[in-house]
Design brief:
113 residues
Length: 113
């Protein structure tokens, strides 16, 4: 599918890359342009790097809407997950890795021989 050059900057504002443009096939990945609303993409299977909400109809929000619903939610969730991890009294990743090496490491070495 051919993407008009004047539409590419608007698509890039949505977070798309040049590699994403190659995925536009007109069937499973598509876009439409409106003079007032800008562009929106049809990508029901999240084939592109677009990471905002895509409706059940497969269409994203218009670029003029500056939709950040998903990234706002995920940003808050990621921050909470980091805080919970920091507060956690569980073993560090290094401790877990060392324990696994002690328990299973020698078996892997024996199998190599």
């Amino acid at each position: 599918m051919r993407i008009e050059e004047k539409h590419k900057p608007l698509l890039r504002e949505l977070g798309l890359t040049d590699e994403d443009f190659e995925k536009f096939d007109g069937k499973f990945v598509n876009y439409e342009y409106d003079e007032e609303k800008g562009v929106r993409i049809y990508d029901p299977y999240y084939t592109t790097s677009y990471n905002e909400y895509i409706g059940v109809d497969g269409w994203s929000a218009w670029s003029s809407e500056k939709d950040t619903f998903m990234s706002d939610i995920l940003k808050g969730a990621q921050e909470k997950a980091k805080l919970a991890e920091q507060k956690s009294e569980g073993p560090a990743q290094d401790e877990i890795a060392e324990a696994l090496k002690k328990k299973f490491g020698h078996k892997a070495e024996e199998e190599k021989e």
